[in-house]
Amino acid sequence: xxxxxxxxxxxxxxxxxxxxxxxxxxxxxxxxxxxxxxxxxxxxxxxxxxxxxxxxxxxxxxxxxxxxxxxxxxxxxxxxxxxxxxxxxxxxxxxxxxxxxxxxxxxxxxxxxxxxxxxxxxxxxxxxxxxxxxxxxxxxxxxxxxxxxxxxxxxxxxxxxxxxxxxxxxxxxxxxxxxxxxxxxxxxxxxxxxxxxxxxxxxxxxxxxxxxxxxxxxxxxxxxxxxxxxxxxxxxxxxxxxxxxxxxxxxxxxxxxxxxxxxxxxxxxxxxxxxxxxxxxxxxxxxxxxxxxxxxxxxxxxxxxxxxxxxxxxxxxxxxxxxxxxxxxxxxxxxxxxxxxxxxxxxxxxxxxxxxxxxxxxxxxxxxxxxxxxxx
Length: 376
Known about the structure:
Aspartate Aminotransferase, domain 1, 13 helices
């Protein structure tokens, strides 16, 4: 079976993990700091705080946005529940708007109509590492005095208008989950645009204490000063991530090679009207986070997935739109008409893409997809 995903195990992975085991294994060790410095440099942000997950980075962002009960948060419904959970936890109401069918991102042209006197935050999610229309979104946020939290979970080293995704909004949230291009098993990072917010974010991340200031010698003891939780990952996890960050360009390059092989090999199916392939706007560079194709409808999606599974290829669909879920109905509402969100979610199939996937394996996946459509 060609699995859907496999985490990278690179040359220095074991070396750095073993080194971390001989040092400080809790949070904010030398590998955590190395990773944070790399992220700050490559994501164009004044401060990156490594976290235990992207979900926790979103939680921190929601707290830093000072969300109160009754506040409204605008996002697309085609996303992971963590994006909504972070704000629901503080009593917010989620306002879902439709997506663009070309990129699967939030439709920037529908955001402004969804704004009310209670709106506080816009949360764009960059699907498959392809940027939302951030110039438009940031303009809307500025004119309406709203905050922006970017869900850049899938977007490490991807750009919009030559600027790293995650660096536009007040906060950006990255994921280093095992399914991401660069991974620490479970992990994430919070990107902070305003340096004045950094001390507050450190307190939230450090269980509500001023421990970070203590270790920098800025106070003579640390104590409980505000609300917080334990959002620090182990330095062992950070050591594993660091082994990949060192060769991030190589990892992304290989993933791009695989993405391009898929795109070229499956293009004949587009020409015959069987499928659609990912669209990359000219002002975006993506990171080959995933490769997906779209078939005609839900039945065909399930049939293709089952066909691939029976032929030794593990393919999957993606999100069930949040607004149609039990929690989505409870905590949110859909503004406008669901023209594309549900329809496009029913059509999408994700196929294997990971660093060590061989050309032969990629060719096998392509061959089995072509056979399903009886194209040789």
